[in-house]
Design goal:
heterodimer; A: about 800 residues; Aldehyde Oxidoreductase, domain 4; 19 helices; 35 strands; B: globular
């Protein structure tokens, strides 16, 4: 090789493959205002739909009069349940096996429930019409408190389920009961508690929140009567599933439905499910023969589509007196709202809540979950987390701190003592998961060393003494957590949605000149897929990332996939991408052998080329092989160079991390200040460190919002009190803390490139870390568990109740 | 409702269109003028996704009727790059420093930052954080947005650029 030939390392760098902080491809259009979001779409003759919604949380509909609405200039149609019922469309199936009213027929079951859909030739006219639909209601008793929903005399909410004693997940034990789900060894767990030297028990509630992406849910439906075809543009995290659901509901054959998810302005779980607006826009387009746009406003978004959490977890840990955990028992009341529109894999009514043993070596555990109906918005989506994983992480991480407090142990020391050890992986948890890989002690040690944990505890002790002496009114809290996520749903043996296995897909086509188009079954909502998938292909195939176009969201062109949520894109579609690339590489190797007149086995791969073993001057680059694939393939081989992979993951992946937070609390004002937040994440192989860091910043900020202020709160008659950004906390740049990020790398042994997924880890780990910090500030004064959110008023109240204002 | 003729200057061009007196500026820009860069995120003037520059001030265009902007000079994200397509230092900075993810808040954020740097060409981190507090972002946690604005400020002030985003 002469001196002019670039080295392997130089050639690899030019590819901008895995591990490179590649600048994002998407940004070029976004920074110029040239993104293409649903509401940017304008079609000839397009109409606008708007909902008339219920002011009541529970009421009987006595009469609906649409005449005044229909008289508004520009209004073309008003749909009510009476119009949808003959079509069988007044109810739609939910992902959780329940049904949900598209438009309310006889009763409304939550405030802002959809009652009528007004279609007009202009956005403002539709809103005028929606105001003028007259609905006469007879109010009914309201059930808001989940702890009262299953009282024997509680009002019957779901009259449509009268007499149904069996749900899709087994027996219903009460008229407001959805399901009961249990896992683990109850007898062994009870036995562990019977002989426990120490035990704690606490009701740990995770309040109802909402993902609140900056772009709300929206769609445009356009039905072509001549062709009998429907095109549906929408904010869909899972466009292929939406197409299947739309086909099943509308009876339009699936090949005649074209679902397109263009650029999406954030999702965070909000845009997984199917909503009334989609169905109504489709029906309205069929009825009017014109395209119909539906765009949710922010109040509708916060009050009607896709809440998250509302989990009430009675948690018990059994332990020895020196701090070894011996058993975990959790009973959860899960408030699903008026309809069970929970977005979970079919067999998992409580998601993967059984990851609740966390990062600790529990010999035995038992979990029981009762899902219930209340007069609140339907849903139960995973807000920036895998299914119910953030609930589980909050539960176990709070409980470990409560146990540490009872034992008088440092919470980090208690964790160190119980973390699963490196040599135990692959590790089967007491609740049935097989954790793929981990090196927990190394991660926690690194975190504690980096922040100077011992010095922080010393400082805290000094401050506590000063506080007791009356020399300061500030308390210092240190939150430490260790989380294990379960993401990448999932293996077909236990994960499906509506019966469709949760594989995902990638199709890669190499053009003659060596540039590439790749299409995937997932859908970015800001994660940067156009950038990162190209990096995987660049490394696998030795082609420059800049010459690779990544496309998602068009169900006509992309292979079928289950979409982006639960941090599944990298674990599943990222794997499919590598597998498809390897199929291409295998074919390219045969072409190379043919051209170089050697046996396949005499070739070796070097960054971007196949070279003859022992004779590196003889080589064919992937770009040359791409050209050859279209004109010089070996005899008997098909021309062309492309491959598709449908990847059924053998297991989930288990990202983990150690987070530490330092908070200062002013007991007189209740104001909290996050002094420091350090996050160490291990997501296995890192594809783009810049994007990983961005994901962690964003997830931590959402965790900060949840822990410190977010709550979808209802009054006792079911008025939603926090349905606009006036009342629902989204942190600004001023409140948001500075983030310190760090990492270790423990690849997943079963993933083709060892990657685990990262987008949701910071939300899963962040929430308990803030909560533990606030709790830790008050712990030495005798407080055991303070419920979230830790806003100023609640924090002041804690101080008040501890007598600190006397 | 009867429509009225509204004229203004947008991104340096004189424009005229019909709109109802109640038409919000954001809808006028997006639907009459097809400038879909500014977005709608909240309806209550909290999120700032609809921010435009109006007569030398940052303005949430969902809080203004189009008719109130008659005769005004408006700049939207579409008017930030130079005529030859060269990106503004802020647009470059947002990409360099990974100051955006889903891109929905970005047009408003950049237009707001443009006015901030006009008013204060060399802001501290705290001044930047206060200066963009009217614009919400759900993706980035703001840290890289702050860096992006610092990058642009440095470039516009002709000082050496800091290292790219982590």
């Amino acid at each position: 090789m002469n001196d002019m030939t670039p080295t392997s390392a130089e050639r690899a760098e030019k590819l901008e493959g895995m591990g490179c902080k590649r600048k994002r491809v998407e940004d070029v259009r976004f920074v110029q205002g040239r993104g293409n979001y649903v509401d940017d779409l304008k079609l000839p003759g397009m109409l606008y739909g708007d909902f008339t919604r219920s002011p009541y949380a529970h009421a009987r509909i006595k009469r609906i009069d649409t005449s005044k609405a229909k008289a508004v200039p520009g209004v073309l149609a008003v749909l009510t349940a009476a119009d949808l019922k003959p079509l069988g469309l007044h109810y739609m199936p939910t992902l959780a096996g329940d049904v949900q009213a598209v438009l309310a027929e006889e009763k409304v079951l939550f405030q802002n429930q959809e009652v009528a859909f007004v279609v007009a030739n202009e956005r403002y006219a539709a809103a005028d019409g929606a105001e003028l639909v007259e609905v006469e209601y007879e109010s009914l008793p309201v059930v808001i408190d989940p702890f009262r929903a299953m009282a024997p005399d509680a009002p019957v909410l779901r009259e449509d389920l009268a007499g149904k004693t069996e749900g899709v997940h087994g027996a219903r034990k009460h008229h407001n009961h959805v399901f009961n789900w249990q896992i683990g060894d109850r007898a062994a767990t009870d036995a562990a508690f019977n002989k426990a030297e120490v035990a704690i028990k606490e009701l740990i509630s995770y309040q109802r929140v909402h993902p609140c992406p900056l772009e709300t849910c929206q769609c445009v439906a356009s039905f072509d009567k001549i062709k009998g075809e429907l095109t549906l543009w929408g904010t869909f995290q899972a466009p292929h599933v939406i197409r299947t659901v739309a086909s099943l509901i509308s009876k339009i054959p699936e090949h005649k439905i074209h679902v397109i998810a263009p650029d999406i302005g954030g999702g965070f779980g909000n845009k997984v499910g199917a909503y009334s607006g989609y169905i109504c826009a489709i029906v309205a387009s069929i009825v009017t023969g014109r395209p119909v746009k539906w765009v949710e406003d922010r109040i509708e978004n916060l009050s009607a589509t896709a809440f998250a959490r509302d989990y009430h977890m009675t948690t018990e840990i059994a332990a020895t007196k020196d701090g070894k955990v011996t058993g975990l028992r959790v009973y959860t009341l899960a408030d699903h709202g008026a309809f069970d529109a929970c977005a979970d894999p079919s067999k998992w009514p409580a998601g993967f809540f059984n990851i609740v043993t966390g990062s600790y070596d529990f010999p035995t555990a038992h979990v029981e979950v009762d899902g219930i109906y209340t007069n609140k918005a339907p849903g139960g989506v995973a807000y920036r987390c895998s299914f119910r994983v953030t609930e589980a992480a909050y539960c176990i991480e709070r409980a470990m701190d409560i146990l540490a407090q009872k034992l008088g142990m440092d919470p980090a020391e208690l964790r160190m003592k119980n973390l699963i050890r490196r040599e135990q992986f692959p590790y089967t948890s007491a609740l049935g998961w097989e954790y793929d890989s981990g090196d927990y002690h190394t991660a926690l040690n690194k975190a504690m060393d980096t922040v100077g944990y011992k010095a922080l505890r010393d400082e805290q002790k000094t401050k506590q003494e000063a506080f007791r002496r009356g020399e300061t009114r500030d308390l210092m809290g240190i939150g430490v957590i260790f989380f294990t996520e379960i993401v990448g749903a999932g293996p077909s043996r236990n994960c499906d949605i509506l019966g469709i296995a949760m594989f995902d897909s990638a199709e890669i086509r190499i053009h003659p000149t060596g540039s590439v188009i790749a299409r995937l079954g997932t859908k970015s909502q800001g994660q940067g897929h156009e950038t990162t998938y190209a990096q995987i292909i660049a490394t696998e195939l030795g082609l420059k990332a800049d010459n690779i176009t990544v496309e998602e969201g068009n169900t006509d062109t992309a292979p079928y996939g289950l979409g982006t949520y639960g941090s599944r894109s990298t674990p599943v579609s990222g794997a499919a991408t590598a597998m498809a690339a390897r199929k291409i590489k295998a074919k390219a190797q045969m072409i190379a052998a043919h051209l170089l007149e050697v046996h396949d086995d005499d070739l070796e791969w070097d960054v971007d080329r196949f070279t003859v073993k022992g004779n590196p001057e003889r080589f064919k680059t992937m770009t040359e092989l791409a050209w050859a694939a279209y004109h010089g393939v070996p005899p008997g081989m098909e021309p062309g160079l492309e491959a598709v992979s449908y990847y059924d993951p053998p297991n989930m992946t288990y990202p983990f991390g150690a987070y530490i937070c330092v908070v200062d609390v002013d007991v007189d004002t209740g104001m909290t200040k996050i002094r420091r937040f350090y996050a160490l994440d291990d997501c296995g192989t890192r594809i783009n460190p810049m994007i990983i860091e961005g994901q962690i910043h964003g997830g931590l900020t959402e965790a900060f919002a949840i822990a410190m202020g977010q709550e979808i709160r209802y009054d006792e008659i079911g008025n939603v009190m926090t349905a606009s950004l006036m009342d629902y906390f989204l942190p600004t740049a001023v409140e948001t803390p500075h983030w310190e990020t760090d990492w270790t790398t423990t690849p997943s042994p079963h993933h083709p490139i060892g990657a685990k997924g990262v987008g949701e880890s910071p939300n899963v780990g962040g929430v308990p870390c803030f909560a533990n910090a606030v709790n830790d500030a008050f712990g030495f004064l005798g407080s055991t568990h303070i419920a979230m959110p830790h806003d100023q008023w609640r924090t002041w109240t804690v101080a008040e109740n501890l007598g600190l204002h006397a | 409702m009867a429509k009225i003729q509204i004229a203004m200057t947008v991104n340096g061009e004189a424009v005229e269109a019909l709109a109802e007196p109640r038409t919000l500026l954001i809808h006028f820009l997006r639907e009459q003028l097809n400038l879909t860069g500014p977005h709608i995120g909240c309806d209550t003037s909290h999120c700032g996704a609809c921010t435009v520059d109006l007569d030398g001030k940052s303005m949430k265009s969902c809080t203004v009727f189009a008719v109130q902007a008659s005769g005004a000079e408006i700049r939207t994200i579409e008017g930030m790059a130079a005529a030859d397509g060269t990106l503004h230092a802020l647009q470059e900075g947002f990409r360099e420093m990974h100051g955006l993810q889903c891109g929905f808040c970005t047009p408003g954020m950049i237009v707001r930052a443009y006015r901030l740097l006009q008013e204060n060409p060399n802001p501290t981190e705290t001044e930047i954080r206060f200066g963009i507090a009217g614009n919400l972002c759900r993706c980035t946690g703001y840290q890289n947005i702050v860096k992006a604005i610092q990058y642009a400020a440095a470039k516009l002030n002709g000082v050496p650029l800091q290292e790219a985003a982590e």
